[in-house]
Amino acid sequence: MQDELVKNGKYRTYLSNFVDFMQGTSDEFSEIQDILNRHRTLTETNSQLIEQQKKSVTESELRRAELFQLSRDKVNSILNRNNEIASLQKNLETVTLSTVGMQSMADATFQDVNVKVSELGQVHASVENLFLRLENQAQRYKKKKSVEPLGTTTTSPSTPSGDNDHGKSSIS
Question: Which of 59, 140, 147, 155 has the highest CB neighbour number within 10 Å of its CB?
Fold first, then answer.
């Protein structure tokens, strides 16, 4: 213990000389205890700052890991959404092509139906025209038959119009 007193005595001398020097230039350290108190305060503050820095580094690493995970999750989410969009676009293209094909078929069918209806209308008009002409001829023939005297015979068949066409039928 005596050795420690001798060893620490040189520090006491150094601090005493420092206090004497500082009294001439500044009032900050008037006693050795002020220097020791200042040293203790700085040491405690340094320890607190080191602890705070360690906590800050730990928290920073935690935040960095969270940010990295969040960033990776968002990138995966974006990729999944892009895949969904691509799939939906492909479905849209397929449906659009199918719709165009069906519309083309419907247009062709509609056009075919129009042609058939037009042809049917022409046939109907022709048949009706023939019917009316035959009906007119039949009425003329009946009139002519009713006008001829009863005992008259004809040597050749005559047409309702009175023309002799030798068995050929004529439609006027």
Answer: 140
